[in-house]
Amino acid sequence: MVFSRTLKRAGSSALTVILMMVFSAAQAAPVTAKLDRSSAVVGETVTLILQTTDTDQSLDVDLSVLEADFDVLNRRSETQMSFVNGRQSASVRLVVTLEPKRAGQLEIPALKFPGATSSPLVLNVSAAPQLAPGEAEPVFIEVDIQPEGGPHYVLSQVGLTVRIFYQANLTEAAINPPAPDQATVRLLDEVPYQADRNGERYRVLERRYAIFPERSGTLTIPPMQLTGRLIERPSDRLWQPTVRGRRVRVESAPIALEISPRPAEYTGDYWLPARRIMLSQQISDNEDLHVGEPVTRTVILDAVGLEENMLEEPVWPQIPATRIYPDQPQGISRDDGEWGTRSFAMPLCR
Q1: Which of 147, 66, 146 has the alpha carbon at shortest distance from 108?
Q2: CA 104, CA 281: separation in Å to the nearest integer?
Q3: Rounded Cα–Cα distance for residues 272 and 303 (Å)
C-alpha cells in the first residue's frame, strides 16, 4: 500500500510538471520577425526586426545563418513600454541591419531562440542600376606614389597620396587606411577641396601618407576600400521623411613596389636613406670657461624624409680627463612628414 501511494504521488508530481511545462509553453509569447520592406536593390540596406512581448524571452540569436546572402552590419536591442486604457504593456526587439550580397529572391530562415522560433521571410533583391553611357562615376579613388619611378630603399620614405572624389550626395563615407605588411604607415595630412574631372565637379578629400618599408623585396599595398551611402532621390512617402540611399563600395587598385636593400657599396655603420641630412652643433658658454664648470655640446641632426626616431645617436669621442654625462635625446617630426630632427646633448666637466 505504501509503495502504491508512493507511485501515485510520483505520477501526480510528474503530471504536474508536464502540465506546468505545457501551460508555460502555451503562455509564452512568440518571437515575430518582419522586414521594413519586401524588396531592395543591391547596395541598399534593410532592417530585420525580431520582437516579442515576453520581456523574459532572450533574443540572443546566432545570425551566422544569414551570412551566406547578407552582410550583418549592425544589431541593437530595444525595449518599448506603452500604456493603453490604463494597462501597461512591454515588448523587446532585436533590430538587425542587413545588406544583401546579391540579386535574387533571398530567404531569411527561421531563427531559433530559447523556447521560440521565428517564421522565415523572403526579400526580393534587384540588381543595382548601371551607369548610362557617358554618365560620370559618383565616387572613385585616385592613388599616387612618390617618387613615382623609384628607386625605393628599405627604411626610406615612400609617399602615398590618396584622393577620394565624390559628389555631394555621398554620406556615411569611410575608407580603410593603407595596410601594407612589413611597413610602418603614418598619416601626414588631410586636405579637402574641389576639382573637375571629365567635366564634372567633385568634392575631393586628399590624404597623404608616409610609408617606411621595413624589409627589402616586394611591398604590396592592398586595395583601399571606400564605403558610403549614395542618396539618389528623396522618399515619395509622406509619412516617411527620411531619405533612402544605396550603399556603394569602390576600391583602389593594389600597388606593388620593389624595395631595394641598402647598396652594397654603402659601408657606413648606420643606414640613413634620407633625401638630405644636415649636421650642426652648439656649444654652451664657450667663453670664460673654468676648470670644474660644465659645458654642454649639443649635436643636432636634421633629415629630410626620415622621422626622428630613425636617427641614431652619434658616437661621442673620448676626451681625456673629462667626465661625460649624456642627456636623453630630444626629437620631433614635422606633421607633414618631410623633416625629422633629433638633438643629442653631451654635458662635459673637467
Answers
A1: 66
A2: 72
A3: 9
Q: Binning pLDDT at 50, 70 and 90, where does residue 129 land?
A: low
Q: What is the pLDDT of residue 180?
A: 92
- 237 to each of 11, 38, 234, 242, 243, how far by Cα in Å? 62, 16, 9, 9, 10
Measured between alpha carbons, how far is residue 99 from residues 110, 124, 130, 225, 346 in Å?
18, 12, 19, 17, 62
> Residue 347, preceding bond cis, omega within 30 degrees?
no
Cell 653631451 belongs to residue? 346
Reference 214, options 278, 140, 272, 154; nearest CA is: 154
Among residues 259, 256, 297, 305, the alpha carbon closest in space to that of 280 is found at: 297
Q: Report the chain's mean pLDDT, rounded to a whole number.
A: 78
Which residues, listed in sequence order, are joined to residue 130 by a DSSP beta bridge? none
CATH number for the domain formed by residue range(s) 25-126: 2.60.40
User: Per the structure block, which three cell numbers stand in for 311?
Assistant: 636617427
Distance, CA of 311 to CA of 260 (rounded, Å): 20
pLDDT of residue 131 exceeding 70: no
Euclidean distance between CA atoms 164 and 143, whole angstroms: 9
Q: In 157-306, at which residue ranges do the beta strands (DSSP E only) sit?
A: 158-166, 170-175, 183-197, 200-213, 217-221, 225-231, 245-251, 255-260, 276-283, 295-304
Q: What are phi and psi of 51, to 5 degrees?
A: -140, 145
**CB-based contacts of 63, cutoff 8 Å, min separation 6:** 72, 75, 96, 111
Highest-scoring range by mean pLDDT, 42-51, 90-99, 225-234, 251-260: 251-260
- What fold, for 139-260? Immunoglobulin-like (2.60.40)
- Grouping H, G, I as helix, E, B as strand and the rest as coil, residue 65 is helix
* pTM over cut 0.85: no
Of 228, 248, 225, the C-alpha closest to 176 is 225
d(CA 107, CA 246): 20
Does residue 186 carry a pLDDT above 80?
yes
